[in-house]
């Protein structure tokens, strides 16, 4: 009998140890990336990439550009997780939504790209108050489920930009299921009805990701792929280089209004030597869009600002609410309580990085009762040209 009790007691303790180990080894969050051979990642599985020479570091010319553009650009990024892939492998984000075998993005997410309908020139780049009327400006995006608060360069058929950058403060807007909210930079080239675009920033996107945390996020369109694609999911698109920082990675620290700012400096610029479009944090290369498929002639316009909307169009109806943008508050000159991008710069055609020119900018807000944008011309040496934007959303 004693032997039986000892066996039962032993079984009980072993069961407790097993359950405890299971609880520790199965956290609530799933693995969100997979390590793949750097040469077998999705971007390189495209006919045009057959003889592509991979770029693993910025050219000296680009490094010189980045180092002289602003001396106080942070060189590190504070992101959740320290795991990195083995030598010769890179992390590729695994999306929440199921994908087809050829990794084409699902149809319900195509329309989040920011496809342009038409442009018109508005007022010049002075301080923009959220109560300023925007009714005389046409909508920039043809999707009814999208809302935006941005500044953009004038449409120009001859001028070309070779990149853009900003210091983002990171926020966590409270979005519902199948909604998204972004702090975003667009580099667009439009020829007729065809648009090529490289877009980047942080996003809360519950259709793409399994939760509502802000993440490093990118999107691209090319003349050969007008539906576009997020992150590193499609052939011919974004090439991942860094072993631990990748589009889809979580920003673990974000802002609380009135509290400490958590920021990240993001830049996309065409390398003057390789002509690839490089995504960098400070001077650290994260990945790039290859020259074979992306804006060989440069960008014809640049946007900075916020984008928010619903990603499940089947649930759309007239009374659906729109998500918050930025930190959920309208922009103010008090940057401690606003979502902002500081140190707004773009790269000119001669590959010099300069502060954006307020006289080349116009502002657009599609729903001023829900969102706002304010451009602050040269705040101080550290902030320089600054954009604040956001709003609570609602019935927009």
UniProtKB/TrEMBL annotation:
Keywords of this entry: Signal
Chain residue ranges for the region called Disordered: 114-137
Superkingdom of origin: Eukaryota
Bias-annotated ranges (Basic residues): 121-137
Residue ranges annotated for the Neprosin PEP catalytic domain, each copy included: 141-396
Signal sequence region: 1-23
One of the Pfam families matching this protein, by short name: Neprosin
Keyword Nucleus: no
Official protein name in the record: Neprosin PEP catalytic domain-containing protein
Organism: Capsella rubella
